[in-house]
Amino acid sequence: MSKVTRTPAWQALLQHHKDIAELTMRQMFDDDAMRFEKFSLQLDGIFLDYSKNRITTQTMQLLMQLAQQAALPAHTAAMFKGEKINHTEQRAALHTALRNRSNQPVLFEGRDVMPAVHSVLARMRSFSDAVRNGTHLGFTGKAITDIINIGIGGSDLGPLMVCQALKPYGRDELRAHFVSNVDASHLVEILKKVDASSTLFVISSKTFTTQETLTNAHSARAWLVAQLGDEAAVAQHFVAVSTNLAATAQFGIAAQNVFEFWDWVGGRYSLWSAIGLPIALYLGMDQFEQLLAGGHAMDEHFRHAPLEKNMPVILAMLGVWYGNFFGDTSSGLFPYDFYLNRFAAFLQQLDMESNGKSIDRDGKPVDYDTGMVVWGESGSNGQHAFYQLIHQGTRMIPADFLVALRSHNPLGDHHAILLANCFAQSAALMLGKTKHEARAELNAQGLHGEALEKLLPHKVFQGNNPSNTLLFEQLNPHTLGMLIALYEHKVFVQSVIWNINPFDQWGVELGKQLAHKILPEIQHLPDELKHDASTNGLIAYYHQHKSR
Ligand code: F6P
User: Fold this and answer.
1) Within 13 Å of residue 107, how many CA atoms lie on the same side as its CB?
2) Residue 324, φ and ψ in degrees, nearest 5
3) Cα(54)–Cα(66) distance, rounded to whole angstroms?
């Protein structure tokens, strides 16, 4: 038995799960008029309703005991103190320093990192101001109208999600585009939309070795030089964001055009660093700093609020409850906000790359489940696509609903309809529809006898599907910063419970190694292929058929 499953709280939760497995939320709401008040929390304009969960007061107490017994407070302190908690890479995870708005120093290896953080922020401000106010011009003297970020994973998803989420704070005359896929179609389709003389490329890569990003960057560079007819144009049209200054120099980007960050910032936690440059360019540095302030506000809450009143801890422990005790394998994220269209994609990397681990911090295989599959889509679209499975499928899928109280586009009844749909879904998932209710409904529709009995089972909804609802005033940079940090810390808390390192990602390496081996074989068929029969067959099939 592992350390985690041996804890008294884990053992008590196993028994508690048996005790309450049959309880319905419907019943629990009927029995307790204060349930909503009891299981909800408000923080700086964000309201969390977690009353629609399969929990009692005792469940929450046991979950918080589990967090204590896993030494969560000590692990949290270690992260904020810059200890090398990413032990497999011997790195700290200090993304919180990037959004530290206090005047407190943050020490890493005995030195305060804040002067370096502030200096890069100051450079981001002066560069983004210069681009936005037309001081930094393109090679032919034109103002910049289009920014193209070239990056992938954490060097793409965060800035892309934020730029999309905060579109109302952007301006029409400056557009942000994101190229991530090595499929040339991605780059080509974006280049079709822009004029080289007014386009700025931001090459974003923590390592500056990522094949997809470098391939796209080289092609973009070649396109720009061909369009403007002069190699010298690159200096005005290319900047880089990286921790690898040797590699950016080798690519040909002058030092003054490189924005630095540090290896204590994980890729999927990097939007707060210079990786956020496209955000600053698109929205302005003031808005970017509001985003940082939101992240910092959530950090302060996470560090100092008691566990039972701590939003990231509550969300995390509910996830543990469903993943480890109910055996759920996936969780849904449904923002009822068009601008949060890419939030689920961002969260997928954050959560699944962090907690998709099966070896614990002591190097032993875990004997319990870790990260869940995270998926989602903005509402109300999902309702007309996949919600059926949540309502009447065989699996329980805990869900988070996110919705703003005020829309950026108050048009007719749109927002009221959106809210009504959001609230209706969480209610329907919780309540379901009993046989008795379904029968009464069919009766009222004039159906009786055999016809009714035949249809009846299909009209029953099992309900009792848990969800959280997060309400916020309006999607602004501060709120978004809080929401992102909320989920970052949720993921961290779960990693602590599961005793895994959420800050490495060795699992992505094998595919990269194999791709490097296969690439030359795609370019020229060797005399002998030495892979498994399927891979050999696919490569050979490609060569036989490519010319047709
Ligand atoms: O391969 C996975 C990964 O390393 C992610 O963790 C990272 O966000 C992404 O690739 C991009 O890496 P980089 O910023 O170094 O190009």
Assistant:
1) 7
2) -95, -25
3) 17
The helix (H) or strand (E) run that includes residue 496 is helix 477-497
Residue 503: DSSP 8-state = T
Rounded Cα distance between 438 and 463, Å, is 13
Q: With CA atoms as reference, report the closest residue to 225 among 193, 186, 199.
A: 199
Taking every pair of Cα atoms in the chain, the longest distance, rounded to a whole number of angstroms, is 83
CA-275 nearest atom, ligand 1: 14
Q: Output the ligand 1 site: residues, CB below 6 A.
A: 152-155, 205-207, 210, 213, 267-268, 353, 505, 508
Pick the atom of ligand 1 nearest to 151's CA: 16
DSSP label at residue 507: G
Give the helix, strand, coil percentages of the chain, each rounded to 5.
55, 10, 30
Q: For the chain, how many residues are written?
A: 548
- Torsions phi, psi of 515, nearest 5? -60, -40
Enumerate residue ranges in the chain where pLDDT < 50. none
Tokens 């990269």, residue located: 512
DSSP state of 32: -
The single-letter code of the amino acid at 162 is V
Q: Find the 248 Cα to ligand 1 centroid distance in Å.
A: 16
Residue 51 alpha carbon to ligand 1 centre in Å: 37
Q: Kindly list the distances between the CA atom of residue 139 and the CA atoms of 131, 188, 282, 507, in Å, as whole numbers in the listed order.
A: 13, 22, 20, 42
Task: Take residue 55 and report the two structure tokens written for it.
Answer: 């929990």
Q: pLDDT for 374-429, tens place per residue?
A: 999 999 999 999 999 999 999 999 999 999 999 999 999 999 999 999 999 999 99
Provide the residue type at 377 as one letter: E
Q: Which of 261, 357, 505, 506 to mutate to test the pocket of ligand 1 (most atoms within 8 A of CB)?
A: 505
pLDDT in tens, 33-54: 999 999 999 999 999 999 999 9
Distance from C-alpha of 125 to C-alpha of 129, rounded to nearest angstrom: 6
Measured from the Cα of 267, ligand 1's closest atom is 8
Residues with Cβ < 8 Å from 214, sequence gap 6 or more? 205, 208, 251
Q: Candidates 91, 160, 207: which one to mutate for ligand 1, based on the most atoms within 8 Å of Cβ?
A: 207
Which residue is listed with tokens 């450079």? 123
Task: Please tell me whether residue 83 adopts helix, strand or coil conformation.
Answer: coil
Q: Is the dihedral of CA 336, 36, 491, 106 positive or negative?
A: positive
Q: Which residues are catalytic?
A: 353, 384, 512
